[in-house]
Amino acid sequence: MDIRAVVWDVDDTLFDYTTADREGMRAHLVAEGLLAGYGSVEEALERWREVTREQWARFAAREVDFETQRRDRTRVFLRREMTDTEADDWFLRYVTYYESAWSLFPDVLPVLDALAASHRHAVLSNSSLHVQDRKLRVLGVHDRFETILCAAELGVSKPEAGAFLAACDALALPPDQVAYVGDHPEIDGRGAADAGLLSVWIDRGGDHATVVPPEGPRRIASLDELPALLAADTRFGAPSTFG
């Protein structure tokens, strides 16, 4: 069956989150005078990424809400007790630097232009609507998407099938007419495939050591490959684009 719509992940798929987070936190740590406790900037950044992964997992498991995971990221990273206001203020100072480094990947606008007439478009993110709606507006692509769905409001997050099916419901399309494009091979790739969508894993880092079975996500290294893949619709038994 033809693919009629593409649902997109945002962070590290459309938006270069990793670079913005790294550069934003680097500038924030320098401004806050917090590098003295680390051997290097990279050590501090790795600690921040580790804490972020841990707290995000708690949010994804619905153990805490979106605001709490942000506050706890700050408390755990700084290793001190903080009121909600203190944690919010510290995080918002980081956000100022983080937002100054926001950018789309260079292959995003060309592929959105190429697919504008042929496919409908939506967003499904494990973040919050408040965060992603504003981000997409600042990046100038908000109007490219019919609907923007986020885990904080849905009450279900990727890789659970319910998240992907909610996006299909919002588009009033069955899963086999919808493609999902995301950067994480399990959360995005495996989750979308298991929910019955055409799953496309954008593997910008070229992690070819990961084995992709025929029934799993289609792996691409650049969004430039997406239009041809959608036209072919290679879900059923065809080899991945990396052979």
UniProtKB/TrEMBL annotation:
Annotated GO MF terms: hydrolase activity
Enzyme class per UniProt: hydrolase
InterPro entries per the UniProt record, alphabetical: HAD-like_hydrolase, HAD-like_sf, HAD-SF_hydro_IA, HAD_sf, PGP-like_dom2
UniProt xrefs under Pfam families: Hydrolase
Protein keywords: Hydrolase, Magnesium
Phosphoprotein among keywords: no
SUPFAM superfamilies: HAD-like (SSF56784)
Cofactor(s) listed in the protein's UniProt record: Mg(2+)
EC number(s) from the headed UniProt entry: 3.1.3.-
NCBIfam families named among the record's database cross-references: HAD-SF-IA-v1 (TIGR01549)
Protein name according to UniProt: HAD family hydrolase
